[in-house]
Input
Amino acid sequence: MRNGLDISGVSELVHEINENPEEAPIVFDVVGQWKRGSALVDVRTAHYGTIRMARGWKVEAEPGQRPAREAPTPEELAIAALGACVLVTHAHGYSARGISLTSLRVGVHGTVRHRDTAEHSHAPRLFEDLRYAIEVECDGDDDQMRALSQFVTCFSPNHRAFLDEGSYTIELETSAGSGPATVTPLSTPPPATLAAAQALGSGRCPVQANLTWEYATQARATMRLGPALNPAERSYDITIDQAKQMVGLDSGLNPQELLLTAIVSELLFGLQDQAERRGITFDALRVESGGRLDIRGMLNVDPSVPARFHRIGLRIVAKTSAPHALVEEAASAAVHENLGLGSLRFPYAIDLELRRNQERLLELRSDGEQVRTFLELMARNNKAHALAKDE
Output
């Protein structure tokens, strides 16, 4: 055991997926429903290869513009999902290298455009000025810590989902009463570049999440969205953890489930908003989502496997008497302005600062080029090590 993690269990996991690659993919299942102005999200059973992983977590989200809200916003959940994945990957990395942690904290900061900026409703909502502030106390040396944080930028699945230019699939199903359902795929092509998309928006506000490592893969996230991030304003907490099959404690939803929760809840708010603009009334509305993580990439077992969280698919299921074409128009607009989906579509750059005892050890801008350079360096070092071992 190291830092509460069963290192031998991780080694057995790596051996098993080397022997049986079909056991490596994990498929997550998250479903959200609209209920009395809130998004109620159910994190359902996941499938790890041929194994069922019972989850059963439930999350409520509310829109940020609602006064005196009692639940976190999709923006807060999304940025917490990004930081949580970076924290968990750090915890795994330190433990695998035999380094004992005293404390580990990850702060994630950014800005987002307000949802209610009607004059820019055609613009995709995207994070801007994303940055990590990572503070670690441990018994490793400074060089180990610098190398590990760069390693994390290559193998943290949610971080890579933001860094890489990715995609998703989404379809709309509508039905009225007991009649047959109509199903169509949705497509909302974004502007050509991230900078062009960000230039369309205005009315930005800060959002942050502070993640504190507790034990093994367990962490606590404190989230806040607001004009000034005043400490007196309400913040929201959530527990992050991995399933027992992923050597976690099973005390909360994991970072990939949290990212899907953010996407689904925001899509429900966007759908309701766009429907109201068009005079559409839903008798029932839900969003089904799934995503895939192949842990061969995350664990650096097979370099050809993407390390990012990918193959994300969604289905909007609406019961309404409105024409399908009108609902499709509203759904396409909601998808276009969805912060989480926009973050998956565009290749981001995220600034990272690593500190130890208030001393800055590392500053870097993590982007596609930084990842490629570090992976090439890792490959060269591994090759040199193998050659030296053979001699």
